[in-house]
Write a structure and sequence with these properties.
Helix content is about 65%, strand content about 0%. By secondary structure, the chain is mainly α. The chain has one domain (about 1-290). α4 (about 95-120) packs antiparallel against α5, α6 (about 175-195) runs antiparallel to α10 and α10 packs across α11 (about 290-295).
Length: about 350
């Protein structure tokens, strides 16, 4: 909004030229999102505690191990959602269609998570929305985002998947690109949701991935840098750096209250929306495969669940003491802070590996 209002005035007031620069507006989005999160968090936590009185916020199979967390309010992802949405609307170029596609996924998936979390509070159980209904809603919103991406992406790449480390190499999927984009968006959403099981475990890797894709968005939207790095140039996609910056700021603000011992959990409101929007950004920047590397921690957590389920169904035996993977290490006797910090380290390493693909071409 500030871009649309103030840049036309730059001809008369040179100061407003600042709002032309993505770096300046991204920095503004980070700080705005962080401040909003700090401002609304105390009141929101109090409201959630009052609303949640008597409700179960711990999954049944974790009640013994996580009994001490009973009473900690969930649905804290709402503060992330509000902070990111307001900051993005304030600092981004609202004429850019990619911004609106990303906001559609962010808010849409956030509302799915909100409905799930709210049912857990009001029904006083830990099940929430039926799984099939959640998936159906995710596919519906993801389908609209995928169709929008196909429409607004350049015609020479709108139904293609870029192959990392190989310059100018694309796989043409035709209309199979829509299912591919759905797999990325819905998969990323649920992968972050599976990772959100310990205090601070998911939010830092999300911030790391958002920072990486903020850089990727900026580079992919700049013809000079995209040509130099031999990555797909997507006009207009640079504006997504602002949403990524807002997500980093909100993540830092949320971590202040989610650091062990957590005062609030993000719930599905936060995890579904953040994972979904990262998937959507990866689709629009043509870096879907890079997301699987940068967000490799989320992939590991998801694969651990798949392996556990398949192994038990086929052989009757479990590969892990418990899935997702972080609960396996809990069962092995690792303390929660040890698991969280080591997983953060893994997330940083994978992010660096993912970013290195930008130059290895």
């Amino acid at each position: 909004m500030l871009y649309n209002l103030l840049v036309p005035l730059s001809e008369h007031f040179i100061f407003f030229n600042l709002f032309r620069y993505l770096t300046f507006r991204t920095g503004g989005a980070i700080m705005t999102s962080l401040i909003i999160c700090f401002l609304i968090a105390p009141g929101m936590i109090r409201w959630l505690k009052a609303k949640q009185a008597g409700a179960s916020n711990i999954r049944a199979y974790l009640e013994e191990a996580h009994a001490k967390k009973s009473g900690t309010p969930t649905m804290g992802g709402l503060m992330i959602l509000v902070s990111v949405a307001i900051s993005t609307l304030l600092w981004a170029n609202l004429a850019d269609p990619f911004v609106w596609i990303a906001l559609l996924v962010l808010v849409g998936y956030g509302m799915i998570g909100f409905g799930d979390d709210y049912l857990k509070l009001t029904k006083k159980n830990s099940k929430g929305l039926p799984g099939k209904l959640k998936l159906l809603a995710q596919f519906a919103i993801g389908g609209m985002a995928a169709a929008g991406a196909v429409y607004f992406l350049p015609g020479n790449m709108n139904m293609h998947v870029a192959v990392p480390m190989l310059k100018h190499t694309f796989m043409y999927l035709s209309w199979f690109f829509i299912p591919w984009a759905l797999l990325v968006i819905v998969g990323a959403s649920n992968a972050v949701n599976l990772t959100d099981g310990l205090d601070g475990l998911a939010i830092v890797p999300v911030a790391i991935a958002a920072a990486c894709f903020g850089l990727i968005s900026w580079l992919a939207g700049n013809a000079v840098f995209a040509n130099y790095l031999q990555i797909p140039y997507v006009p207009g996609v640079g504006e997504l750096a602002i949403l990524c910056g807002a997500l980093v700021g909100a993540a830092m603000g949320f971590l202040w209250y989610n650091a062990p011992p957590a005062q609030v959990f993000m719930g599905d409101t936060g995890s579904l929306s953040m994972g979904g929007v990262l998937g959507a950004i990866a689709v629009m920047t043509k870096h879907e495969i890079v997301l699987a590397i940068v967000g490799g921690l989320f992939v590991l957590e998801t694969v651990s669940v798949i392996v556990q389920v398949v192994s038990f169904k086929l052989t009757g035996k479990r590969v892990f003491a418990m899935a997702p993977l972080h609960h396996h290490f809990e069962k092995k006797g690792w303390s929660e802070p040890t698991i969280v910090i080591r997983f953060w380290i893994i997330a940083v390493i994978l992010a660096l590996v993912g970013l290195s693909t930008l130059k290895l071409r």
